[in-house]
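step=encode ok
step=design start
structure_in=
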């Protein structure tokens, strides 16, 4: 057998990525579809964002631009992002040098990590994580150190975190508000993270895609508002969650010109640019009046309260989120102790799909008691999901 033939007969996925397999979101969505289940697993709305944005996109497709956007984004959306950063966080951000528009927050994370990590650098990931972080860090050939936050409060374990920093630490990723556990970091926790990064000459990458879903009078602290952050932090966000348009994949990274150069360096060779008409339309959305953001929050607060109360009525121990759009339950309250088995059973037996949380820890014995339901769904979808769970429970 020739060498080339031999190579093709073997597993072709690079060794480093094999352990990641197919994402748990894909697996659960396939199961949900197979059993006609109410899909409360993957975090995408079952409604579309405002019609004005969609009309804007239709007009932009007809009238243009329809050619490659500038690599870091059409000027309209970068300027609109800068205005939004000013309106919500009082930040002055230079749209020409400090904002890079990407194919979703996922690409922003990928471009950032690939742009700053050298082979063998260490990166600290806080568990439970958002599923893309470990594979992306792995693609950057970094060594990952995991620091676990524990239920019920998911407090930042400061000592363990300090111990995780070493001479090779290049970056820390923080997701605030946090998916899956709904944690909203306190200002003190974020300041602590910044101080560690400054002390160890590391970067702090903050994934802030749920910035506008922070409940009970708390407010989102953008990482870039904290002292010292301009030297070390990248703020990543996305229009997917704020404008309920996950399929448009418009995200962005905001950072100092120096850090933005690293993001742009890799972004230009991953996708080069995003879709110009969609970016132009999304610029309109960024300028929506405060009322839009207030209604978004009120709608999600109502859905969160409904789901939490209904799950509690079913006898579940519920962790009400401070932010984002997911609710965790402790399945031991339902007599189960294996999240993966529970979530593989649920679509067929109850007609509802959820996500097992042990997939968000390196050591999967952690999080085994936790299952995540999302509430970015129409009221009637959530009601139907609860009706089915009730029937299954009885
Ligand atoms: C924490 C977090 N970051 C990033 C993303 C993906 O964002 P995008 O669709 O803009 O790539 C998600 C989507 O669920 C998320 O929960």
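sequence_out=
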């Amino acid at each position: 057998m020739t060498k080339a033939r031999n190579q093709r007969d073997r597993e072709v996925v690079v060794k480093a990525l094999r352990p990641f397999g197919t994402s748990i979101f894909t697996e659960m969505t396939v199961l949900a579809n197979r059993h006609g289940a109410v899909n409360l697993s993957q975090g995408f709305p079952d409604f579309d964002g405002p019609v004005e944005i969609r009309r804007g996109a239709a007009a932009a497709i007809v009238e243009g631009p329809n050619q490659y956007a500038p690599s870091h984004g059409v000027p309209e959306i970068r300027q609109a992002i800068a205005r939004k950063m000013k309106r919500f966080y009082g930040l002055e951000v230079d749209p020409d040098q400090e904002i890079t528009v990407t194919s979703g927050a996922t690409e922003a994370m990928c471009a950032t990590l690939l742009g700053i990590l050298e082979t063998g650098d260490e990166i600290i990931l806080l568990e439970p994580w958002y599923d893309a972080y470990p594979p992306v860090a792995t693609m950057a050939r970094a060594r990952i150190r995991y620091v676990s936050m524990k239920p019920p409060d998911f407090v930042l374990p400061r000592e363990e975190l300090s111990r995780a920093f070493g001479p090779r630490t290049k970056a820390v990723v923080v997701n605030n508000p946090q998916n899956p556990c709904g944690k909203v970091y306190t200002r003190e926790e974020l300041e602590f993270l910044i101080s560690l990064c400054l002390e160890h000459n590391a970067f702090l990458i903050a994934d802030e895609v749920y910035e506008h879903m922070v409940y009970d009078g708390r407010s989102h602290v953008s990482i870039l508002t904290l002292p010292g952050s301009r030297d070390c932090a990248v703020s990543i966000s996305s229009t997917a969650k704020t404008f309920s348009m996950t399929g448009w994949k418009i995200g962005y990274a905001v950072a100092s010109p120096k850090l933005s150069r690293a993001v742009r360096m890799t972004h230009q060779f991953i996708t080069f640019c995003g879709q110009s008409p969609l970016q132009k339309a999304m610029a309109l959305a960024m300028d929506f009046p405060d009322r839009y953001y207030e209604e978004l929050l009120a709608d999600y607060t109502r859905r969160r309260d409904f789901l939490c109360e209904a799950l509690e009525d079913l006898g579940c121990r519920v962790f009400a989120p401070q932010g984002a759009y997911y609710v965790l339950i402790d399945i031991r309250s339902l007599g189960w102790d294996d999240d993966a088995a529970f979530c593989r059973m649920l679509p067929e037996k109850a007609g509802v799909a959820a996500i097992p949380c042990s997939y968000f820890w390196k050591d999967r014995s952690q999080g085994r008691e936790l299952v995540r339901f999302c509430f970015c769904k129409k009221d009637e979808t959530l009601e139907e999901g609860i009706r089915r769970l009730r029937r299954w429970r009885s």
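step=design ok
step=annotate ok -> The mean pLDDT is 96.
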